[in-house]
Model the fold of this input.
Amino acid sequence: MADADSIAAGLDEAGGHPAESGPSSDLAVRSRAWFLEAWNHEFWRKYRTQSAEDVGYYIGGEYQWTKDGDKTDLELLKKNKRATISINHIQAQVDILTGFERQNRFDMRLLPQGEEDEGDAKLMTWLLKFVREQGDFPAVESEAFENGVIAGMAAVDTPIDWTEDPVNGKIDLELLTPGEDVIWDPYWTKADLSDARYVIKFRSTFLADLTAQYPKHAAKIREAVRGGGGVFKPGAAAGPLSEFDAKDAYGTVKAHAEESTLAKLLYDEASETVLVLEPWYQDYERHWIVTNKASGQVYEVESETSARTLADSDPENLEAVERRRIVIKMGVVLPAANMTLEEDATPYENDDQHYSVVPYIAKRKRDECYGAVRNLKDPQRVENKRESHALDILSRLANLRLMIFSGSVENEADAKNQTSTEPLWLKPGHNPPTYLAPPIGDLLRALTLEADRMKMVMREISGINTDLLGLKYDDTSGIAIARRQAQGQVISTIYFDNYRRFKRIVAQRVCRRIQQVFTTERVVRLTTDTGEEVVAKLNPVDFRGKTRDEVRRLQAEQPDVMGPGQPKILNDVAALKYDVVISEAPSTPSMRQMELGALLEVIKTV
Done:
């Protein structure tokens, strides 16, 4: 294969870092390698196909006739003008789970881990609630839960948007679809992606929009993409593909055939759209500390020289230790041209060891991520086929047909016309016509019984029984219904347990963004746990430079100094050390009211 057109263009003889040509191409080569590794990995290839099919089965209609992306059965029935019908039972069962989540939303609260008191943690909890309500985070999280239950995975990003407010910034929550606009290391294992080598957000954008966004690189972008001056040659049937080597933390570049669909994804010459990657990846920095063997104390130092100098001052007790610290870096890459448009450290300086993307995994076993729909597709498909078959039989054979001996009637045209009301004139010496009534009852009963059995199979697989669906029978007691509802809720516990972990990680990321954004003196109106509104003063100038004891004294004197109704004080938001926990109290007023009503009913009964 022709030196692989060298994605290797610019690689040195050892296959190492590429030579610089215009904008940096080192990150571009690595990012392209990571993206193509993930895109072509069996896990992501299978997930893209299966998740799209899962969503189709939830939507219903013709989407419920697919099998591994193939609609041959449906197309064959349509070609032969046979009856087809889709009865969607999957949507109701998924909506039961998503309805539970929306009705039972829980708030997050913060517990102090440092010298902060309970009051600071409570104010920070209210501030977190304020940010979540301003950005409509509960609705985005609910949509992520729904997408995960349907397709198996969902993801959100926790960026700070500086376009609307360049001074203060706006904390946002962006919903992402794994495999469609975000992809990550297929060998990850941890829920927060902390062991993933890379996370890549990607999108297709018009070439004109890209050059407008990066005017300094506009000429080089057009030359590299349109003229084929980069690594990727538009219109080529096959091209280079990057493949990851586990021995190299950044991936190595090898050559083999590239799919035409992937080539079109990188650059579509007809529509002038190009793929843009936003890679986030792990890097390492050296970190030096000095340990005291006698006292157990640890001292952080800025450099190796400082560490060794300090250790040499008392070699018997002090020891200089080098450690590697993970840091997250990011960039913006144009893989079609092997061009790096941006390259920098993470923009979240107080959260430089975590990815901003947080995935929600509904269920994961080995290399399969799936939700409630995956195992319901086969019985739903069988039910649709059997119901369609039954309707087809009825439409074709239910009409009574005349049986007539040849030449036995005079007006044969009327006999052939099913809508004619004219009497049939029988010729002398012939038997009268009779009706053909085929025995279709047994066949229909068998088909409808099989369809009903598939409905029961779907309920047994999902755990969403008739009581959870709101179907109550007269011969069932209320206690039995409650127990069956509880049983159905237990079966679906894994979705909600994984969702709670997802929400806690998201809240941790958002709290970090709060500490980065709310750094200046600001007065905000917050809502307490009971719905009462309070005014809070964040990062007051008068409190800066004060010791912790002085701050507490000033806070204690606040009612006398500031007068009643003055703002509560949350000093130095960025310095607060916290632990995020999921509150056990529902966040919606209707659910709190319902719980109160249930409690009063119990008290009344006692």
In short: Residues 493-517 form the longest helix (25 residues). The first strand starts at residue 106 and ends at 112.
